[in-house]
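Subgroup meeting minutes
Present: P.N., E.W., G.H.
Scribe: E.W.

1. P.N. recapped why we're keeping a running log of single-chain structure predictions: easier to compare across weeks, and new members can see raw inputs and outputs side by side.
2. G.H. added today's entry (153 aa).
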Amino acid sequence: MVVGDRIPDLLGIDQNGKEVRRSDYPGRKLVLYSYPKANTSGCTAEACSLQEHKTQLAAEGYEIIGVSKDRVELQKKFADANGLEFPLIADTDTTLLQTLGCWGEKVACGRRTIGTLRTTYLVSEDGIIEKIFTPKEIKTKIHGEQLLDAIRK
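Output recorded in log:
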C-alpha cells in the first residue's frame, strides 16, 4: 500500500482474542505499525516507546495498533510483560501484513529471508494512509517521539 490507499476495515484478532476493525475507532486516527517478532529487543523497544507516548498520541487524535505474525498467546505475553495498552494483532497467516505491503524479503547479517518489514502507517479517520515510515526510517527506541514530531509538523 502507498500513501492515499485505504486500509481494510477488518484488521484481525488481537492478543485478547477480540476482532479489531478500523471502524471500531470512529473519528480517530491510527498508528498502525508492523513489527517482526514479539519479545525481541528492537520490537520491545519500539512497543515501549509507543506505550510511553500513548497519551500524547491520543491527544493528537491517534490510537495505536500493532501487528505481527506472532500467535495470540505470544502477543498476550508480550503485551502483559511490557504493560502495552493497545491491540496487538496476531496475523499468523500474514494476510494483513501482505495487504499492507510490509511482508517481504529482508537481509540480516548477509542472509536473505522473508518476513515482516518494520513499518508504521499513519492513517486518517477515514482509513486513508497519510504517511508511511519505512524500516530504515524507524528508530525503535524513540519511535513514539518520531511519530509525534511528524504529526506536529
